[in-house]
Design goal:
The complex is a heterodimer of chains A (547) and B (560).
Chain A lengths: L13 E2 L5 E2 L9 E4 H20 L9 E4 L5 E4 L2 H8 L4 H16 L4 H20 L4 H22 L1 E2 L8 H11 L8 H15 L12 E7 L7 E3 L1 E4 L11 E10 L11 E4 L4 H24 L4 E4 L5 H9 L4 E2 L4 H11 L3 E2 L11 E10 L6 E8 L5 E7 L2 H23 L2 E4 L3 H14 L6 H12 L1 H9 L4 H15 L16 H4 L2 E3 H20 E6 L6
Parallel strand pairs in A: 7-17, 10-12, 10-14, 12-13
Antiparallel strand pairs in A: 1-2, 3-20, 4-5, 6-18, 8-17, 9-16, 10-15, 15-16, 18-19
Helix pairs in contact in A: 1-3, 1-4, 2-3, 3-4, 3-17, 4-13, 4-17, 5-12, 5-13, 5-17, 6-7, 6-11, 7-11, 12-13, 14-15
Chain B lengths: L18 E4 H20 L8 E5 L5 E4 L2 H8 L4 H16 L4 H20 L4 H22 L1 E2 L5 H16 L8 H14 L10 E7 L7 E3 L1 E5 L13 E3 L2 E5 L13 E4 L2 H24 L4 E4 L5 H9 L3 E3 L4 H11 L3 E2 L11 E2 L2 E7 L2 E7 L7 E7 L2 H24 L1 E4 L3 H14 L5 H13 L1 H10 L3 H13 L5 E3 L7 E3 L6 E3 H20 L2 E4 L16 H15 L1
Parallel strand pairs in B: 5-17, 9-11, 9-13, 11-12
Antiparallel strand pairs in B: 1-22, 2-3, 4-18, 6-17, 7-16, 8-15, 9-14, 15-16, 18-21, 19-20
Helix pairs in contact in B: 1-3, 1-4, 2-3, 3-4, 3-16, 4-13, 4-16, 5-12, 5-13, 5-16, 6-7, 6-11, 7-11, 12-13, 12-15, 14-15
The chains are: A alpha+beta (547), B alpha+beta (560).
């Protein structure tokens, strides 16, 4: 009567001695469960699908994707992290891949496509190994060993590049590599220059620290990409509060206020009963007096520009105008802070605290307008502290501007990484090919099952140059095998895929650099993810709750 | 029922809809429920154990290998199976590790005696046998365990490292074992050795970076709190600052919500405004006078105060989480002040180095070289949130194991070695007992073998073969022979291979598994009242939902 045979799938449905099913889990009818090898296989499939989506965006000849958000907004990009981030994937394993690229984005800011392609390739390879009956964890162990070999190899083939604030040649080249695959590649010399200048402006080369908060990237539709420029100061999407105020202020001394330009009010709930005409007049007098007092206090400090976090009414506006005090209202908190840092002024919370020392200084503050539109922006330049910069991206439409911003972000990150760690490996898949050779050599020395996994890792590394060649319209396998054999015979780890068709495979001569930390991070993250995916043998999904 | 009487009317004893099952059938059915649960868990055991991905109703995924966590997430409602969940939790709370083993053991005990139950052996005899066998096992552990020599700190340290790495071997961080076990042991060594309050080990998770980028801060670290404009102008680096911890809101705001000021004359208007400013300025000045350079508050610090501090080169952070603030106090000394007046020197803390640092995409405030550093913070990095959470769980297990080892210092060999040895000894002892108990105790001995067997199965080794090898080794007196998942032969001396576990983990696992098995065996009837029709006395649901809920429930009942 009793059956002891409990097959793994029956943990959800269990029957007792009399064949009556009984409930073990809450609402188990709605739970689904995948188990064992079947679960791993389905995960691999999901991950492969995701990797295939971004695969075509890899490299300088990679193509872009259009993403349409639920409310119809269009994004055109070939940035791996952006594509995956906007796809809103549902599958749990696919979500892991999305997080993987995001994590690469957060940490390094570049190489987000590469890491996903690598992880996808590793999983694809492990599928074949699973079919041979190798335990998933043995595969993961093998990958770990292979990854350690590859990372060590990267350390060996990396080269230190020299740069200083005067000699930016090498930084420029790195920025160009990163920009090469983006929509802005037509203007990539200019963009690279902007990225390098921006980073060097804010970087602390001694401490190898690049505070990103000080680089602001702003964009406006109109003009062309070529008009993108670096502003050594702060750019505000605001204009002077009164149309008759001067358009530019030289040698500006700024008052940075975080209180409204109006008579102060108690925060406590209050009530003022006005019972007579005199009292009303008194109140009006008081307010007027306050206004005059405020203007006077500002004037006394010698300021000639007022930046205010809050608004002020027409009366104040008029008074400011009359007293020749240009003013900007409704400036957001982060911008206030940026202005304060740039101009080395102090943020003043009330008029009583205003002193001369608290003013910020800027060489010139001017309003710029664009084309025929009446949009105006305020540029604060020649600030006391030169370490705050703004990059102002122009482009013919919003998608281009947004993509331009993303491209710049990647380039800035790439330059930043070099400032932090100036070791580079060569791009164009050369580092991958070289590591792949190293890993497969190391594999031969290992006696256990992991040998197979290490070979698989080596083949997975080839996925990157393969995708590069494929996207560049070359015959992938032919190109790869040729470069691979040349790497071995010439013992030159700098040979990669010639994506731009310049007839030169030496990436050092093509100046295609990647920061070492970025490559390392890619390998480590991808291996880590693959381990997590391979380790899952059971997926229990609750049904959607009825609501 | 008496003979000769006409059919008696049915006596309605219980409310309609009450579900009763009883007798042997019920007992067997309970056992199969427990086995089903154990079956789900079994693949997570051991260094080659797999993970589970569990998705809840809201679509959040969790990847874990921790027995207690899986059982919690499964949301088990079967009353007997719930017992297993409870013992896993108890094991988690008590020793923090070995949660999977305890469930497997309990289920295996039940499985072994199932045939006895079917043959009509009274559950009480079985329970008696189990209790006896368990006592025997515990005595044997006491006898077998090896006390670690704490007198040599260096050796003790390396022992702790080994314990930590054994507990990590089945987890995701397996490949980084040396790195993390060092971290865990250092974290424990930071704590007060008499107290070992692990709540003083803060764990912060930052997505991004590799696992290797995780770090241990011997002090306190927390994420930069939300700041107002002006915070960037504050200094971010201090050596030997005085630290003031407050529970005061430093913001310009209405002092009392329900107060209302009646302004009689316009001239008073300004006075009231000034008075309000005066209140906050007085607070700020009092703080400045204490000489504190770092001001932390549980409550918000407004933009006014932020800028005021910035002007005076003081660092401030508002809305610091209570736990973080408590750890700052523990590390830096001082106490949390709920007023700004009358703050004396002794109320302030200090630390060697205060710094704001960029870690991944976040900025962190870090207090290091604290004079009373009885606290530390683990900053975990990883590619995805699920990784980091799993790392946190794994580290928790390791921390608990190390903590236990520091406190008790007695270890046994892991990898199934201790179970095999116990099994051998108990079986030998069983032969000396006459009667049914002999069978029961032998069954108990056999059940213990489930641990090495499952480790073999999960690692893809031939369990029957290896188990026979192990039995042979143990019979010939090789008392620490256990499973070796890496080597070719599959068997090795785990004491020499440093696969160690604190004996307390095993003691607790065996005794609670026995308790749970006995509990399930002693139940022979389940009475389940129909679920009350009353919607739960929470917030009133809109009409319609109640009906829907009832319908859902009706369906659930129908299945039984």
């Amino acid at each position: 009567m009793s059956q002891l045979a409990i097959d793994p799938n029956s943990a959800v449905y269990t029957t007792d001695e009399y064949g009556r099913p009984f409930i073990i889990l809450r609402e188990q009818g709605r739970k689904t469960r995948a188990h064992g090898l079947e679960a791993i296989k389905s995960h691999i499939l999901a991950a492969k699908t995701v990797a295939n989506i971004v695969r075509t965006s890899l490299g300088p000849r990679g193509l872009d994707k259009i993403l349409i958000s639920p409310d119809g907004e269009i994004t055109v990009t070939n940035d791996g992290a952006t594509i995956l981030g906007q796809m809103e994937v549902e599958h749990q394993i696919a979500k892991l891949l999305v997080q993987l690229s995001k994590s690469q984005d957060d940490e390094i800011g570049d190489g987000t496509t590469g890491v996903v392609v690598l992880a996808g390739a590793l999983l694809e390879q492990s599928e074949a190994l699973l079919d041979r009956g190798i335990h998933p964890i043995r595969i993961a162990d093998g990958f770990d060993r292979a990854c350690a070999v590859a990372v060590k190899h990267l350390d060996q083939i990396c080269e230190t590049i020299q740069f200083s604030s005067d000699d930016t040649e090498n930084l420029l080249k790195t920025a160009k590599t990163s920009l090469g695959s983006k929509i802005v590649s037509k203007e990539h010399t200019q963009f690279a220059q902007i990225a390098v200048d921006a980073v060097l402006q804010v970087a602390d080369l001694e401490r190898r620290d690049v505070p990103f908060d000080l680089i602001k990237v702003d964009g406006k539709v109109g003009g062309s990409l070529a008009e993108t420029k670096l502003i050594r100061g702060v750019l505000l999407d605001k204009d002077m509060s009164h149309p008759q105020m001067p358009r530019s202020v030289k040698d500006a001394r700024l008052v940075i206020l975080t209180c409204p330009f109006e008579p102060p009010r108690p925060k406590t709930k209050h009530k003022l009963d006005i019972t007579s005409v005199e009292e009303f007049n008194k109140l009006r007098e008081y307010e007027k007096e306050k206004f005059a007092d405020m203007i006077k206090r500002v004037k006394d400090t010698g300021a000639n520009l007022v930046i205010c976090q809050w608004g002020f009414d027409d009366e104040a506006n008029h008074l400011l105008m009359q007293n020749e005090l240009p003013a900007v209202r409704w400036v957001g908190g982060p911008e206030i802070e940026l202005i304060a840092i740039a101009t080395q002024g102090r943020i003043v919370p009330r008029f009583e605290d205003l002193t001369k020392e608290k003013l910020g200084k800027a060489g010139i503050v001017r309003e710029i307008s664009f084309g025929t539109t009446r949009d105006k922006m305020l540029v604060i330049e020649d600030c006391a502290n030169t370490r705050a910069v703004t990059i102002f991206v122009r482009g013919s439409n919003k998608m281009i501007v947004d993509e331009g911003k993303r491209a710049l972000h990647d380039a800035i990150c790439a330059v930043r990484n070099l400032v932090v760690d100036n070791r580079v490996v060569y791009g164009g898949g050369s580092a991958e090919i070289s590591s792949s050779i190293a890993v497969s050599n190391a594999a031969d020395e290992i006696p256990s099952i992991e040998q197979y996994a290490m070979r698989a890792f080596a083949s997975a590394l080839d996925a990157i140059p393969l995708a590069l060649a494929e996207n560049s319209g070359l015959s992938p396998i032919e190109t790869l095998t040729e470069v691979r054999s040349r790497q071995v015979t010439e013992k030159n780890s700098k040979l990669g895929i010639d994506c731009n068709g310049r007839g030169e495979n030496d990436m050092k001569k093509q100046f295609v650099y990647d920061p070492l930390i970025s490559k390392r991070q890619q390998y480590l993250l991808a291996t880590q993810l693959v381990r997590a995916v391979l380790k899952i043998d059971d997926v229990i999904t609750s049904g959607q709750s009825e609501e | 029922m008496q003979r000769g009487l006409p059919m008696q009317p049915t006596v309605v004893l219980l409310k309609e809809g009450t579900d009763t099952s009883q007798g042997r059938g019920q007992l067997l059915s309970n056992i199969s429920a427990c086995l089903a649960i154990a079956e789900t868990l079994s693949s997570t055991l051991g260094p080659r154990g797999m993970d589970k991905l569990i998705v809840n109703e809201r679509g959040d995924a969790q990847i874990t290998n921790d027995g207690a966590t899986i059982l919690k997430l499964l949301d088990i409602v079967h009353p007997a199976a719930r017992t297993l969940v409870d013992i896993a939790r108890a094991q988690d709370a008590e020793v923090g590790d070995g949660t999977t083993s305890v469930v497997l053991l309990a289920a295996q005990f039940l499985k072994e005696v199932r045939s006895f139950i079917e043959d009509g052996v009274s559950p009480h005899i079985i329970m008696k046998g189990f209790r006896k066998a368990s006592q025997l096992a515990l005595d044997q552990i006491q006898e077998l365990q090896i006390t670690v020599d704490k007198s040599d700190p260096e050796q003790f340290h390396s022992l702790l490292l080994k314990c930590a790495s054994t507990s990590m071997s089945s987890k995701l961080i397996h490949s980084e074992k040396p790195f993390f076990s060092k971290m865990v042991v250092e974290a424990i060594e930071c704590l007060d050795q008499d107290d070992l309050d692990e709540s003083l080990i803060g764990v912060k998770k930052i997505a991004g970076g590799g696992l290797q980028d995780s770090l241990l801060v011997k002090g306190v670290a927390f994420k930069k709190t939300f700041t107002y404009a002006g915070a960037e102008q504050q200094p971010k680096h201090f050596a030997d600052p005085l630290i003031l911890c407050l529970n005061v809101e430093l913001e310009l705001k209405a002092e009392k919500d329900n107060a209302e000021v009646r302004v009689d004359a316009v001239s008073e208007y300004q006075a009231i405004v000034d008075a309000e400013w005066e209140i906050i300025y007085r607070k700020l000045e009092a703080i400045e006078k204490t000489g504190a350079k770092v001001v932390l508050s549980k409550l918000p610090i407004g933009d006014l105060a932020t800028q005021w501090f910035a002007d005076r080169d003081i660092f401030c952070a508002g809305r610091v989480a209570a736990g973080d603030l408590r750890r700052v106090i523990q590390a830096a000394g001082g106490s949390i002040q709920s007023t700004c007046s009358d703050i004396k020197k002794e109320h302030l803390g200090t630390c060697g180095l205060f710094d704001e640092r960029q870690i991944g995409g976040e900025r962190y405030n870090i207090f290091e070289k604290c004079p009373k550093a009885k606290t530390c913070t683990l900053i975990l990095r990883g590619g995805a949130e699920q990784f980091i959470e799993e790392v946190e769980r794994s580290l928790h297990d390791a921390l608990m194991v190390v903590k236990r080892a520091v406190r008790n210092g007695e270890v046994v060999a892991g990898g199934g070695a201790i179970e095999m040895e116990l099994s051998a000894r108990i079986r030998k002892h069983a032969l000396s007992i006459p009667g049914k108990l002999q069978l029961i105790i032998a069954a108990f001995a056999k059940s213990l073998e489930v641990i090495p067997r499952q480790i073999c199965d999960n690692a893809g080794l031939d369990s029957t073969d290896i188990l026979n090898k192990l039995r042979m080794k143990h019979a010939s007196g090789d008392k620490w022979a256990g499973v070796d998942v890496d080597g070719a032969s599959g068997v090795r001396d785990n004491m020499e291979a440093f696969v160690w576990e604190p004996s307390l983990v095993k003691i607790n696992a065996i005794s609670s598994a026995t308790e749970a098995a006995c509990l399930i065996l002693s139940v022979d009837e389940t009475v389940r009242n129909p679920q009350s029709e009353q919607a739960n006395p929470g917030p009133k649901a809109p009409p319609g939902t109640a009906q829907r809920a009832l319908r859902g429930r009706g369906r659930g009942m129908g299945r039984r």
